[in-house]
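Box 3.1 A note on notation
Throughout this textbook, protein chains are presented in two layers. The first layer is the amino acid sequence; the second is a token string describing backbone geometry. Keep the layers aligned when reading.
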Amino acid sequence: MQKGTILFFLFICLLVLVSAGYTTIIGNHQERSYPPGTTVVIGDSITRGYSTGIDQISYSAYLSELLPGTTIINAGFWEQETGQMLLRFQDDVSNQNPRYVIIQGGRNDIFFGTPVETTEMTLKSMYQLAEQNDIIPIATTLYFDNSFNTSQNQQIEELNTWIINYSVENNNPVVDFNGPFRDPSNPGQSLPSLLLPDQVHPSEAGYREMANDIYYQIFAKNATPIKTEYHARDGIRTQELLRD
């Protein structure tokens, strides 16, 4: 067996073990729900979303449907790295006086070659800035990017491990996007059905999944989770929501 094949096999095994560890760590860490309140979501194009001309497609839009009456402010900006988010954090987050800030970022850092350690320190700065302004920071993991190579997705795994460990150590809430997006038949990749054809940005189904993840992992931890079934109908991906 060639060295490259062995290394790839070991990486896949590590992904399975780490994923199981994420579920246990987050489950043990977050034992209570947080009451809804004004929330700013800051991030890159994955947070910003897109418009169909009629509807806004983003996880913040779908989160608003799950939290009626709660103000959700979308401060996502296309193609930004975490360093650029940090520069506008005061204006776009702190000055809005929210109760929470959901911080999503790091994909573009990896794409543009920023070291993972630098991204970690930038995220840490945003978490700390939030706390200094009496805002609860909600960290999020990154899902695998199907346009990335194995090395880049290894960096996503490394960054996710740091995000979760930091959140647990500092008693901050954290949302795991990576777990629900994982493709069980293709380790190290996300489910294609939850992504647009570019295999980078979430599809409508993907954004609904992200909103559900935030809602049930943070704001309604004791609620009965919605079962989601995604299926194609006439070439269009739709979603059915079923309760027990």
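The chain has one domain: 3-242. The CA atoms of residues 83 and 115 lie 12 Å apart.
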